[in-house]
């Protein structure tokens, strides 16, 4: 391992952490089974569910996190008084329709194209 490569160090630490959590989770579930707090048939399913979540194999959880992130982003934009992309797109569409309408009016000559910065 290259000590000067932070990405490689981060990856290896992540793998080590996942392995440590996996081992610890198995020992905890075994202790719960021995103490009667967990049914022996439920222990493997619990371990599998937690490990799937750690590996990012839970699309429902990821979708829920994405929705929450989108709501937080929308709230932040609203708090800052900034327009969302769909609002900007809607306004562009409205401007396009107004320009077309003005061009189609008889005897109404429009000046050259107006450059509106994006």
List keywords for this structure.
4 helices; 72% helix; 118 residues
Structure notes:
- With 118 residues, the chain is mostly helical.
- It is 72% helix and 0% strand.
- It contains four helices and no strands.
- The protein has helices at residues 6-35, 43-55, 59-80, 85-104.
- It is elongated.
Indicate the topology.
Blueprint: H1 6-35, H2 43-55, H3 59-80, H4 85-104
Q: If you average the pLDDT, what whole number results?
A: 81
Q: How many strand units?
A: 0
Shape: elongated
- Structural class comes to mainly alpha
Report the major sheet.
Answer: none
- Which H/E pattern describes the elements? HHHH
What is the distance, rounded to the nearest whole angstrom, between the alpha carbons of the first and last residues?
Answer: 46 Å
Helical content stands at: over 70%
Tally of helical segments: 4
Strand percent estimate: under 5%
Question: What is the structure about, briefly put?
Answer:
This protein has four helices and no strands.
